[in-house]
Write a sequence for this structure.
C-alpha cells in the first residue's frame, strides 16, 4: 500500500522516511495476510455450522 503514497511524502519525513516507508509497507502486507486468514476462518466456521446442522438433521431422521 505504501506505493500509493508519493515519494515526496516519504522524503518530507526526513532521514526516517525510508524506514517508515518500509515499516508501513510491511504492516500493510501483514494486514492483507490477516484479512485473508480471517476470511478463510470465517468460511471454515460457516462450513462447520453447516456440517453440524446436516449431522443433526441426519440424526433426527435416523431416530424417526
Amino acid at each position: 500500500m505504501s506505493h500509493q503514497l508519493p515519494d515526496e511524502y516519504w522524503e518530507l519525513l526526513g532521514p526516517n522516511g525510508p524506514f517508515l516507508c518500509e515499516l508501513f509497507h510491511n504492516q500493510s502486507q501483514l494486514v492483507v495476510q490477516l484479512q485473508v486468514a480471517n476470511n478463510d476462518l470465517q468460511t471454515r466456521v460457516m462450513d462447520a455450522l453447516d456440517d453440524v446442522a446436516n449431522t443433526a438433521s441426519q440424526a433426527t431422521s435416523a431416530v424417526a
Notes: The chain has one domain: 2-63. The mean pLDDT is 87.
